[in-house]
Amino acid sequence: xxxxxxxxxxxxxxxxxxxxxxxxxxxxxxxxxxxxxxxxxxxxxxxxxxxxxxxxxxxxxxxxxxxxxxxxxxxxxxxxxxxxxxxxxxxxxxxxxxxxxxxxxxxxxx
Length: 110
Prior knowledge:
This protein has 110 residues and is an alpha+beta fold. Helix content is 18%, strand content 42%. The strands form two sheets. The chain has a four-stranded antiparallel beta sheet, covered by helices on one side.
């Protein structure tokens, strides 16, 4: 019984840390993607990469908003907050995606 309880506790701690660290999503550029359970209602986001320094982000039907990319050696410095909702946040991750025409978004739920 104690062994099962320890395993369950370890699993809960592991999942909690993973959720806090965020979930990475590789998404196509210039295409709306649905981010569920982050706001009310679910959020649609499209990212346009303007090169080395800037990105443009569209949330739903709103006008595009330009963001300066955060760059640096530290992992935290490579995240650019692009959306903050009632249940979490979405970050653009300044990294090289697996394929051309894609980018990485990190979703951190509260």
